[in-house]
Amino acid sequence: MRVLVAEDERLLADAIAEWLRREAFAVDVAYDGDDALSRLRINEYDVVVLDRDLPVVHGDEVCRAVTEVAAPPRVLMVTAATAVRDRVAGLAIGADDYLTKPFAFVELAARVHALARRTLPAAPPVLDRSGIRLDPGRQEAHRGTTRLQLSRKEFAVLAELLRADGAVVSGEQLLERVWDEHIDPFTNVVRVTVMKLRRKLGEPPLVETITGVGYRLR
Description:
218 residues, four-stranded antiparallel sheet, elongated
């Protein structure tokens, strides 16, 4: 799952991004509204954490632009304004949720998880297939009764394969959904991560490589 954090307070933006990466999200950061719009034109996001008071292009304009795309990401609007009329105004222009500063990172992450699930309505909160049970909210994965000790990227790759429900997921799609824009598109990180994931999943093998196409769960 991929998230854009649009926040002009750089320390806060970077802290939010780091917290969400710990939750196995791929995260990009924009420090002003123009940068946010540029990234939205290039990348597909599941959720945008959007500071309403962005410089250059106001957060309200960014929110309106988000809602006009064919498959818009969910928007969590963040602001220091606490008045009810401000929250109502933010929701009226297209935000899906609203959070006032200061906030606890754990609450922000929970709201992002909830919004991300709404972008994939067919996927249940807990993913269960091929003997694998994965709970994104708790960041837990089990094969049968055995708890899997996965890295954040291994967890995220497994989640994408489970959401595909047996369909093939290409390496390019995994790069797009699990890693952020700073990843080298020619890297072998997907292959290496899948290899480590296979080893941790154990026997019999579950992740199948479709040569020249991608990966799927048996």
